[in-house]
Specification:
The chain has 21 helices and 23 strands. The chain is an alpha/beta fold. The chain has two domains: 289 residues, Rossmann fold, CATH 3.40.50; 256 residues, Rossmann fold, CATH 3.40.50. The strands form five sheets. It has a nine-stranded mixed sheet with strand order 11-10-12-13-21-20-19-16-17, with helices on both faces. A seven-stranded parallel sheet has the order 5-2-6-1-7-8-9, sandwiched between helices.
Length: 613
């Protein structure tokens, strides 16, 4: 596996972390790829998670944030979403390595007798398997069948974690197998600034680097994360104690948006350093079109003044990472529309009628926040908890003509709500919640419910056929679109005709024509629900159409956008079209007999919180 040529061999950049987890290694790794891509170098990424799970599919969102789904159906760590969004590439399930995958592979080989009776050990068998996996996946094209030249590998956790030791040892060996000129180590560490002293402290970084070096890996770049900018004296101190030159210490403080991170890193010479360190033969860096687009995007985010308020009615709102891709998709759409995004996370269970008895303060706060929003997202989820709250939110959005986007379970909740309150099917429910309900509007798919949980859902990229509708126009009038799925339940086909006769139209179906993918109410400003997850394919420079439609409807500009052939007007345009659309929506509300939007039957302007709050 040794390299034959320094310039033609695959290059590897290992990103490790120290002091604390969640320090931003994923963003740093993505930014490194962004810088290299701006020089025209094809890049791929690998995320290593040292947990024993085979993949992220069976995780609770509270454990590890959202489960990100790839085109091939891989359920992976949310950092792979960062890679795909930053680099605009399509990764595969093997781009996420876990301890479980490695041990499963090694044990399978042992059972087959591949090790010829040898004692199977962490070294060399586990470490060799890790190296072979990285080397194999690094050469797989992730963009337009173009073979990557650089593979960025992020090692999850922090240096010193017992779970990560086999991987650290594997890369200690790997750096010699691929030769030094093809391997670079980037260590991300925290530089805390205690309020008691007000000065940056470098000791944690010194200790972290010392431990890394003791394990056989020497950092070529040290990325120091801090709340506020640190001075040259701090860089020099870290340089002196960590055996690197001052220019090899990169300082990244908290920024106004993630889009500034690759720009700040490049301004500190990271691109030229990687070129020299890995013999990439990059000419003197000049702003490429790709980096210029990134720079324009960062400036635009900072210049946004008008706000759009979107509520996410979810089940896992205690950890915002549970909805990372949805938040990013909303942000992409808001930037494209020229608005600053404000997200309010609302716990679905707090909207339920029982909560009014159990905790009236939380109940009224939840409804107040919902009513103050310009638009609503009802995302996916699993289980009974919060389901009735999602249904309540669907009913309120439908009756008050509030723009709404339902995703996965959000579509199922909207269908159940419509069946109960419009068709009069009071026993309507999903068999996930009530297997013996009178009207099973949502049922499981037997082939995706075999009795085991991991990797058995309807997963990955699948084709949806679109009928003439607003959503089809948002997709550029495409007759078919490919989006990623992650679900085990579907709308019961036996009730489709009754739902459509009542006014809920299914304008998107799967390739067989039997599974409902998109529903909408034509007389509503924007009441759209999709079975797939459009957030996974949203990109900073190419927002997801359903999310863009929600944002435009929330600010009263959707009709104007559609009438102009789905082209956004210049940012300094007049808001006359917006005012005109708002008047139309108000007229629709008056026609429907709802002169003022209400929260659970209470007018917004009179809504108060009980118990003195």
């Amino acid at each position: 596996m040794a390299a034959t040529s320094a310039t033609s061999a695959m290059k590897y950049v290992l990103v490790t972390g120290g002091v604390i987890s969640g320090i931003g290694k994923g963003v740093i790794a993505s930014s490194l790829g962004t810088i290299l891509k701006s020089f025209g170098i094809p890049v791929t990424s690998i995320k290593i998670d040292p947990y024993i799970n085979i993949d992220a599919g069976t995780f609770s969102p509270y454990e590890h944030g959202e489960v990100y789904v790839l085109d091939d159906g891989g359920e992976v760590d949310l950092d792979l979403g960062n890679y795909e969004r930053f680099l605009d590439i399509t990764l595969h399930h093997d781009n996420n390595i876990t301890t479980g995958k490695i041990y499963q592979q090694v044990i399978s080989r042992e059972r087959k007798g591949d090790y010829l009776g040898k004692t199977v050990q962490v070294v060399p068998h586990i470490t060799d398997a890790i190296q072979e996996w990285v080397n194999r996946v690094a050469h797989v094209p992730v963009y337009a069948n173009e073979k990557p030249k650089v593979c960025i590998v992020e090692l999850g956790g922090t240096i010193g974690d017992i779970e990560g030791m086999p991987f650290v040892e594997a890369f200690r060996q790997f750096q010699f197998r691929v030769n030094r000129e093809n391997f670079c180590c980037v260590h991300v560490s925290l530089v805390p600034q205690p309020k008691s002293t007000g000065e940056p402290k470098t000791k944690p970084t010194q200790s972290s680097v010392r431990e890394l070096r003791g394990l056989g890996l020497s950092p070529d770049l040290i990325v120091c994360r801090s709340e506020t900018p640190v001075g040259l004296a701090v860089k020099e101190k870290i340089s002196n104690f960590c055996h690197v030159a001052p220019e090899q210490v990169i300082c990244i403080h908290d920024l106004s948006s993630l889009y500034h991170v690759p720009l700040l890193m490049e301004s500190q010479g990271v691109g030229q350093f990687l070129s020299d360190r890995l013999n990439l033969n990059i000419a003197t860096p000049r702003p490429s079109k790709f980096m210029q687009k990134w720079r324009d995007l960062a400036k635009r985010v900072d210049s946004l003044r008008k706000e759009v308020n979107i509520s996410i009615v979810g089940k896992y709102t205690k950890l915002e990472d549970s909805y990372t891709s949805i938040a990013k998709a909303l942000q992409h759409a808001s930037i494209a529309a020229g608005y600053k995004l404000k997200i309010k996370y609302i716990e679905a269970a707090n909207l339920e009628k029982q909560m009014k008895i159990d905790n009236p303060v939380l109940f009224h706060e939840a409804w107040q926040n919902l009513c103050k929003s310009d638009g609503v997202v009802i995302p996916g989820g699993f289980g009974q908890r919060g389901m009735e709250g999602k249904i309540e939110a669907c009913q309120w959005c439908r009756e008050s003509l509030k723009p709404m986007l339902g995703i996965c379970l959000g579509l199922q909740a909207s269908v159940i709500e419509f069946a109960r309150n419009v068709l009069g099917l009071k026993g309507a429910n999903t068999t996930e919640v009530d297997p013996k309900c009178e009207h099973p509007l949502v049922i499981d798919m037997p082939e995706h419910h075999p009795g085991i949980m991991g990797g058995t859902m309807r997963l990955g990229r699948r084709t949806t056929s679109l009928k003439p509708s607003v959503i089809r126009r948002l997709y550029g009038n495409k007759e078919t679109v490919d989006e990623r799925h992650r679900h085990r339940y579907e709308v019961n086909p036996e009730y489709v005709a009754r739902l459509e006769a009542g006014g809920l139209q299914f304008v998107g179906v799967d390739s067989t024509g039997t599974r409902m993918e998109v529903s909408t109410l034509e007389e509503h400003p924007y009441y759209l629900a999709v079975q797939y997850h459009p957030e996974y394919l949203s990109r900073p420079l190419s927002p997801s159409p359903p999310f863009l439609g929600l944002i435009l409807a929330s600010v009263g500009k959707l009709n104007s956008y559609l009438s102009k052939g789905c082209r956004l007007s210049p940012r300094n345009q007049s808001d006359e079209s917006s005012d005109e659309e708002e008047m139309k929506i108000k007229d629709m509300k008056l026609t429907n007999g709802s002169p003022e939007p209400k929260c659970n039957g209470i007018a917004i302007d009179t809504l108060t919180v009980e118990n003195g709050h």
